[in-house]
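Bug #77: duplicate submission created two jobs. Keeping one. Sequence:
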Amino acid sequence: MCCPVLTYGAVCYIETIHRSSICANTPGGVSRDTDGPCDSAFFGRFGTLDGADPHLGSSMEVDGPLATQRKRTTTKSGRAAGGSGFGNRVKGFGRRIGGRGPWWSKLIRWVAFLGVAGALALAATFFILYRAIAIPDANADFQTQTTQVYYSDGKHKLGEFARQDRESISIDEVPASMQAAAIAAEDRSFYSNRGIDIKGIIRAARDNTTSGSVQSGGSTITQQYVKILYLTQERSYSRKVKEAILSVKIHNQLSKKEILEGYLNTIYFGNGAYGVEVASQTYFGKPASKLNYAQSALLATIINSPSYYDPYAEGAKDRIQPRFSYVLNGMVKSGAITAEQAAKFSDRIPSVVDKKNSSRFSGSKGYLLSLVQNQMQSLDFTDDQIYGGGLRIVTTFDYNKQKKAIESVKALRPDAKELHQALVSVQPGTGAVRAMYGGRDYLKNQVNWATAPTQPGSTFKAFAVIAALEDGYSLTTRLNGNSPLFKDGKEIAFNQGDSLGKSFGFIPLSTATQESVNTAFVDLVDQMEDGPDKVIKAAQQAGIPKRLLDRERKNENGSFPLVTPLGYFGVAPVDMANAYATLAAGGKRADWFVIQKVSDYRGDSLYKHEVKTKQTIPEDVAADTIAALQGVVRSGTGTNGNTVCTTAGKTGTATAGPDDDQHVSSSWFAGFTPKLATAVMYNRGKLGNADLEGYMVPFFGGQIPAKTFKLYMDQVLDPSDCGTFPPPANLQSDKGPVYREPAPKPERTTKPKPKPEPTRTTPSPTTPKPTAPQPTAPDPTQPTTPATPAPTTPSPQSRE
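Kept job's structure:
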């Protein structure tokens, strides 16, 4: 046998060498099957190896002890513990890696070894995944399906969000400035990276951290293209890994020009525009081939976040300018433009054409669709999903209630184009918005007056009632309803609006609520310690957003003014309706919402709203507040709002302007039954605070708003299923004076009183004896002088 079987050592592979070739080159070589000189020549050259035949001859040259000659230790069982022990081989392997020297040098060698091993393992994993993951078919469904929006029944269609409006063009039609702008904005290493850019990810993290804002992203243009065209919007590590693998594959299969062309034809630019050609038409009214460098930079800016960098949004310039400058600077660095060109737009952005009208948003339904879009974004759905994901959105809007809301507003609104109306219905106990009228035509005025803050006037007094009852006062608390009201010699309030400016004298809180007496409510919060701040807290408990209340002005003492319950700052009708719904639900608050559920084009559920309630107002406080508000519609300022079901509510007529030149700025009625809460609001002008007088006659909240409320509610309520309010708790006061009914006028008997009568009759002292005239006219006139002051309003003052 020419070559022996090798069992140990680093040359164990020699057995695989074609031994005939070795023997053929050895002088005197013999057959491969017989021992001969070739064996001696071979092993004389390489030395004796462990396991070689002991009779190979003396011609072998040995430089040192062979493995078989080394002393072996034996175990208790008599077996050799040396060469055949796995543990010793591992230890030997470790010693060879660590080498000799101090511990830190060994540590360095080990770290280096593990780093190399890890890199090799990572490379092997990447190679395996690269071979295993195939490029999928393009998202054809993503490109073709439209998002549908439905009413709460899931059958009646409310509208749809624009499908991808796209016109693909070749890269040769895209100006060099647009190509450079996209690369400067999204992937500055585009021409040098291989689909992914590790350095770019690290650099983006550093730049965004040091700048304090998001200036650059870690995804390359290739990765973004892959994500849009081949993958879903799923947020997971597995999708990111797949995205990276596919990006490398796409890089290897397509040229950079092809990738950039596909990207610019696919990416979303906002306002329903997909691709650079439609985006150019949308924002500048011209084809992409005619774009200049500044317009290109603006389009590239929008790519990063189409909704945030929307040029048509309020305050767009302040949001766009930093990112726009970042793109221009990138174009300068790449040599696409000069520094002088970039400097021309250092403090301005290119102008855009007027926003295109879309029939999808025409009329009052446009306000609903716009709100749905905003709510979808707040739920972390992307613009791509909303406008092109083929979603099925079911809202909370009731088809019949929405229809009746529009009809009711149209039936009673005055013929004045400057007037704005809002009507919102919220379901108590859930917060579901069942109907919303925010304006006449969204395309003509994008302000949704159902969600825009407006001075609420006396509808805010309901929160003063809640605050007082929680603080130890009651509906029988005595209040000063005289007008004007003075404090420290200074006039602080007077009655107006639905109370018609009357002076009411001293009255209980229940009457003050029923008649909407301004001075009485100012007196109430003045009696309470930190009264205005407690009213604000009660409003928050009911559902008025804290962010709205926190930004309102306070006086020099850092607290809210005494006129806080009169509703001098803005509240959105939807928030007011929801706050009143909290009362209708017995003090249980739920946040209002309009998105009921969302599913994808396959029907798989993506989102479903979960109703969450919290007892924010004590049940007994809510019960007595409801009782007070029932008095408003039963016999107070809101009788025009009494519906077919048991109703509670409050009128509101707000004023604005300086004390010496105030005008009526808004007119409200907010009310509820056990199963539905609704707020109706009228205002005027661009900002919603212009004078209503002359445009809305009469302008009091107890008139047109209350009548609109009743007309709508009577059509949507079921008289046979009204529900019931809790009975009044009749909370007793432990603070403040209690109102007492004035003593009734003393009743005089018809029996004459002869003795006192002569003494009070001065004209006839000479009459010898009283005659028949004694019980006649002089008798009833006698008690008039003492009787007159007894029941008048000053009498309660004497009880203080």
